[in-house]
Structure formats: C-alpha cells, structure tokens
Amino acid sequence: MSKIASFDIDGVINMEKYPGVYPGPNDVLITGRSIEEKEETLAMLKDKGINNDVFFNQVKFADKTRESSGQHKGRTIQMLRDEGLDIVIHFEDDKIQADEIKKIAKIPVVILEHELVEKENVRRPYSK
After folding, report:
1. 39 within some domain
2. Is the full-model pTM beyond 0.70?
3. Contact, 10 vs 117, CB < 8 A?
4. What is the arrangement of strands in the sheet containing 4-7, beginning at the earlier edge strand?
5. What is the enclosing helix (H) or strand (E) of 98?
6. Count of domains forming the chain
7. Residue 24 belongs to domain with CATH number
8. At what angle do helices 66-82 and 95-105 cross, to 10 degrees?
9. How far apart are CA 77 and CA 69, in angstroms?
10. Measured torsion, CA atoms of residues 22, 23, 25, 29, in degrees rounded to the nearest 10
11. Which of 72, 123, 119, 126 is CA-nearest to residue 93?
C-alpha cells in the first residue's frame, strides 16, 4: 500500500488569486468546508483538474469554527487510517486546525504559513 497525504482545500489547494499546492492522484482532501458547500467546492476542484475523494465537515456552515474544523479533519484522518489508508502527512494553512489534527490523529502537519486567504468561516461561492 502506498503512503497517502491529506490536503486542506482553502489556503492549500485553493489560494484564490494564486496557484495552490495540489494533491497526487491517490491523496485525499479533508476540508473544513461544510457539506452545505459541496456543490461549489466540487465545481472549483473539477475546474482545477482535481478529482480526489473529498471529505466534508458535517457541521452546518453557520455552526462551524476553526477548532471544530480541525477536529473534523483529525477524526476523518483517524477513521480513514482505521479503514486501512496509510495517511502519513496532512497539508494545512491554519495553525489552530493543525493543533487539533495533531492532537487527534497524531500525524505530522505541514503548515503553509501565509495571509493570502481568510481563515475564518467565509462562504466562497464559485464561478469560472
């Protein structure tokens, strides 16, 4: 089994006006975006040529926080590992979320430090 990375979307793959860091074909995307944002998120990823599996936060958009998004990512990584995926690293841009991921999943987190995208709960409607 090959080693797999997990990627956050906003601030890693999607950096609005800038190119992002893209996953390999077997990597997974674990986003803090609410399941309510699925349609626009998948459209944006498709336009970038990214067709990896995406795991959305099940919390309603209005109720999510940076902490709860990090907890969702940590639990999802752990769940996928329990199912047999060899996730060995996560790429993230939010230190608060990274701390939650490390606490829960005990995984190295590469933090892409920048101020290019908003880290708070912001809806990102998508259009070409």
Report:
1. yes
2. yes
3. yes
4. 54-57, 28-34, 4-7, 87-92, 109-111
5. helix 95-105
6. 1
7. 3.40.50.1000
8. 30
9. 12
10. -120
11. 119
Q: Please report, for residues 21, 33, 50, the alpha-carbon distance to residue 63 in angstroms, rounded to integers and kept in the order given.
A: 28, 11, 28
Query: Do 89 and 80 meet the contact criterion of CB atoms below 8 Å apart?
Result: no
**CA dist., res. 82 & res. 84, Å (int):** 5
Residue 119 lies in a domain: no
- Using the predicted structure, report yes or no on whether residue 101 has a pLDDT greater than 70: yes
Q: Which neighbouring-strand residues pair with 109? A: 90
Residue 48 has pLDDT above 90, yes or no: yes
Of residues 34 and 125, the one with the higher pLDDT is 34
Q: What is the pLDDT of residue 120?
A: 64
Q: HSE-up of 120 (CA within 13 Å, CB side)?
A: 1
For 13, the domain range is 4-111
pLDDT given for residue 62 in this prediction: 86
